Records
---
Amino acid sequence: MAIEIQYSGGVYEIKGFLNSQNSDSLTNHIETLMKHSKGVVITLNKVLGIDDYAVKRITEFYNKVISSDQLFYIIGSE
């Protein structure tokens, strides 16, 4: 299932189910955004579900970014 990414007020809102089928494309998309800015903020409040693979990919990407001079924030209700 595809995810939807909407930009509003400086935050990228992720909607849908994050899983092994789409988490690589999400991290690639965020990585491209990071090349053109000093930081990215995403919200997972509208994510309907997330599998272990997607959590692992986002965590790996987060760890990669924090070792650079860029900012990457993840907002979520839980």
---
Amino acid sequence: MASRKNTSKTYVDSIIWMNLLFVGLVLCLHSVNYTKDYLWEITHRFINPYEAGIDQILQKLAVGGFLFLSGYKLALSKKLEPTKAFLIGRLLRIYPLYFLAVIASTFTAYPYAFDLLPNSGNFVMHILALQSWLPNFFQANYLTIWFVSNLFFCYALFPILRIPTKRSRLLLMLSLLTAGIYLARFACLALFRVDFFPGDFDIYFLFFGFGMAFSVSSQQDHKSFSNTKLAILVATLVASMIAFIGLNLYLPKDAPTFFVLKRTVVFGFTLPAFIVMFSQLSKVGISKQQAYLLKYLNTASFCVFLFHRPIWAVMSTLWNNPSYLQSVFILGVGIPFIFVVSYQLQFFYASRVFPYLKQIRSAK
């Protein structure tokens, strides 16, 4: 966060704005499971949002955005860190909170969504963060926190991805590793009839890799786009969104061309959106008090992502009749409560638990 001189405005880093925007999209998408479906209420008079894939557009922007930012930030800050130190550091920073989220979801969000407790195999699959590698292997995946499984996969490959010094070589390596994902997928399906790395696993990996590639340019380059370039980016993302909706409405999902076209248009609207956000959001001037509020909200963002479903599941159990009044409870009370709890969890872990774990590691 930085202030510009001779002005009463404070200008916040684009990454903070983007983090909070992605968290907001996640909360918007997932609130439909606990209260009235406002996405449907707003759009169904014009188009079915789920048949058209509007929810998928928002989901790719949100989850893809988190992975994109993760790749971007790590490429800037962890380029030279020894591999062992990097992997242990990432594990210590993220896994204990994730483990707590698995425990919380096991007894709240999962039974609320599926009306049963997860079995032991499903629980172990999530404890090991392998659910995105072999989704729904024992039972349905826990909702939302499958994202961490993708994140750990990206972390495991980061020491390899950071080797290339040029963007062209990094993109070549991404292509080869993505081909490896496809090969593993097809081999496991053909030999063992196991769906390995299925669905959009490759898309989420590429978001992380593209975030790393984006970091190769200087930060000044990200903020110095001409109006013409910005207009082209906006036109590309709008056209790609329209194309994505058209694919969902008119092309069968099992059509051979759907696989390739879907990936093309997904990156066609997400990457321009991320680039535009990087270049423009840091130019938004706000008060110093608002900037500090954004900073605190941003600190809570990872725990918001992990724990909003358990909290909402408990609240919805207490008041499970969706209505406008119930929405005040779930959204108006629930969202501030989620951020407060998440901030306290994150602050406690970062200030007390994480330093202790680092101290134990250093003593070995």
